[in-house]
Each structure stands twice: as structure tokens, then as C-alpha cells.
Design brief:
alpha/beta, Rossmann fold, 3 domains, 6-stranded parallel β-sheet, 6-stranded mixed β-sheet, 12 helices, about 15% strand, elongated
Length: about 350
């Protein structure tokens, strides 16, 4: 048998109501009483029944996080941060993998698990704005990720253009002028790759320089192999850059591998900056300079927005959509900082 509120009340010499007030963190309890109840809780090993608590509020205590790639370290790190942030609200996260496919994102966003979850955090890639506008009423949803939507939902996304400008300006400040962009895409201009490419161009313009568009290389995907192939393509065309700004860290790591295989040194011959600050980038033979989104802040903002939406839904309080931009910073490591003897 588990320990009940009544058991704690008997040990502490207070009423069951007082124990409930302490467990639910109600403010109108004296510090002395709160301490006495907490000692009883610790001594008896009492654990609140979160399921019953949520059901009394008409909720399940479950939210879904849907991400495009479980194998991508960036999404894995964000997922861990979301789980930690949700736990502070006594919420359990169900993880879903969409592979970035529109049909799977539609299933998740338009009602899958709607009867068992309180809300959804979705990082979409394939969805169009019209899909969001046509979404039937269901659990509250918060968007996560870098694609622009301008839809009727809270959206947590960093300033891709500004972040890219900072990365490229760093390379230009080092005296590099042939700065390649690896990871361009041919799809909608609302894709984050287009925004980061815009930042690449704007950094040159701000410096009074003209970017070399022949150094922009599109990739099929965003993995290490894509970066390796893109870098090989440039070198095979005798278009050697003196620096690389990659769409993400995985592309940057693949590019660095090709550079080493071709006998080029990083950063002496080619400096490299990535994007995402995944853990792998910190521990290579040459550590990777990168734009580091604040993943903890991203997760906290997404969960806090969803919790606010869930509460507002219960009271009927109308909330307008919000675009919230978490922080980011450039981290300079060995791939751009020439080591001195």
C-alpha cells in the first residue's frame, strides 16, 4: 500500500487539507507547519498521485513533442531540454518522429492522440501555412523550429538571418573573402536555409563586399555526408574557398572531413563555422566554431507557452499568436582560431 495524505497528516499532526495545501504549494500555510508536513512527507516517502491531480483538473498530464529527426543530435538535445522543462510542470512528454514528412506532420497536428494529450509542441518541416490555418480545433499547439509560418500559433524560432550575419562577419573579420555557404535549398523561401543564406549575403553587403554566388552549394539533406559531398563538389570545380559557413554543424563536420582528406588544413587553409552547437562539434580533432542557439531557453519557452495555452483553454481566455525569439551566440573554437605555436 502506498503512503496516503492521511498517513502524512497523522505523522505531522495536521489535517489532510493542510497536507494537501502543502503538496499543492498553496501560499496560506505557515512556514512552521510547512516544515513539519515536509518532514513527514520525507520520512514516509510520500509521492503525490499526479494522474489523479491532472484528472481532477480535466487533464491527462501528457504532452506530445513531434520532431523531424531522432538521429539528428540537435533535435535530440532539444528533446531532452523539453522533457526537463516539462517535468517542472509535472508534465510527461510523448515523443513522436515525423521524418519531416508533410503527411506525418498533418497526422500529428490534426488530431492524432488528441484525446490523450493536453497539448502539442511541433517542429514542422513539410507543413504549409495553409495546413496550419485549416487545422481543426484540438489541443493547444506551439510551433518549434526555424521555418517561417506567420500562422495562428505561438512559434519559438531564433533570428536565423541575424545569427548567420554574425557567423559570416566573424569570418570576414578574420580576413576571409571566399566564404562558401553549404546547405542551400531549392524549396520555399520560408525554409531556414534561405534565411541563413540571406544572412550570408547581408554580412558581405554590410562589409561593403560582393559575395561570390558560385560558392553557394545546395545539399540534398543536412547530414555529415551532405557536407562532405558539397565540399568535394566545390574542390572538384576548382572553387576553393578560404572559409565555410555551413547550414548546420553536421554539414560543417562533413565538410571538414573532406578538407582533411584533400590535404587542406582547418583553419589555416579553410576556416569553418557551423550552426547548432551539437556536442559532437566540441570534441573533434579540430573543435568546431558554431552559432549556439540557447536550447534550454528554446525548450523552456515552448513548454511555458504551451502550459499557458492549456490554462487559457480551461478558462476561455483568448490569447493571440506570438513569435518568440530565443537567444543565441557565436562560439569561437579551433576551426576558426588559428593556433599559435
Amino acid at each position: 500500500m502506498g503512503v496516503s495524505l492521511k498517513d502524512v497528516a497523522l505523522r505531522a499532526g495536521v489535517s489532510v487539507k493542510t497536507v494537501s495545501n502543502v503538496v499543492n504549494d498553496y501560499p496560506h500555510v505557515t512556514p512552521q507547519t510547512r516544515d513539519r508536513v515536509q518532514r513527514a512527507i520525507d520520512e514516509l516517502g510520500y509521492r503525490p498521485n499526479l494522474t489523479a491531480r491532472h484528472l481532477r483538473k480535466g487533464r491527462t498530464g501528457l504532452i506530445t513533442l513531434a520532431i523531424p529527426e531522432l538521429g539528428n543530435p540537435y533535435f535530440a538535445e532539444v528533446a531532452g531540454a523539453v522533457i526537463d522543462a516539462a517535468a517542472r510542470h509535472d508534465l510527461t512528454v510523448l515523443l513522436d518522429h515525423t521524418a519531416g514528412l508533410r503527411e506525418k506532420e498533418l497526422v500529428v497536428s490534426q488530431g492524432f492522440r488528441s484525446h490523450v494529450i493536453d497539448g502539442l509542441i511541433l517542429s514542422p518541416i513539410g507543413l504549409e501555412r495553409s495546413d496550419l490555418l485549416e487545422r481543426p480545433e484540438g489541443p493547444p499547439m506551439v510551433l518549434l523550429g526555424e521555418r517561417e509560418y506567420e500562422g495562428p500559433y505561438d512559434h519559438i524560432m531564433i533570428d536565423n538571418v541575424g545569427a548567420a550575419r554574425i557567423a559570416v562577419r566573424h569570418l570576414l573579420d578574420l580576413g576571409r573573402r571566399r566564404v562558401a555557404f553549404l546547405g542551400a535549398r531549392h524549396e520555399s523561401v520560408r525554409q531556414p536555409a534561405h534565411l541563413r543564406l540571406r544572412g550570408w549575403r547581408e554580412a558581405f553587403t554590410a562589409a561593403g563586399l560582393v559575395p561570390d554566388e558560385s560558392l553557394v552549394v545546395a545539399t540534398q539533406g543536412y547530414d555529415r555526408s551532405d557536407g562532405a559531398a558539397a565540399m568535394a563538389d566545390l574542390l572538384d570545380r576548382d572553387q576553393r574557398p578560404d572559409a565555410v559557413f555551413a547550414y548546420n554543424d553536421l554539414i560543417a563536420l562533413g565538410a571538414m572531413r573532406t578538407l582533411v582528406e584533400r590535404g587542406l588544413r582547418v583553419p589555416e587553409d579553410v576556416a569553418v563555422v557551423g550552426f547548432d552547437d551539437i556536442e559532437e562539434g566540441r570534441y573533434g580533432a579540430v573543435s568546431l566554431s558554431t552559432v549556439a542557439p540557447d536550447k534550454g531557453d528554446i525548450a523552456r519557452l515552448a513548454v511555458d507557452c504551451l502550459v499557458e495555452r492549456i490554462a487559457a483553454r480551461g478558462t476561455g481566455t483568448p490569447l493571440g499568436p506570438r513569435l518568440i525569439q530565443p537567444g543565441y551566440r557565436l562560439i569561437v573554437r579551433e576551426s576558426t582560431a588559428i593556433r599559435r605555436a
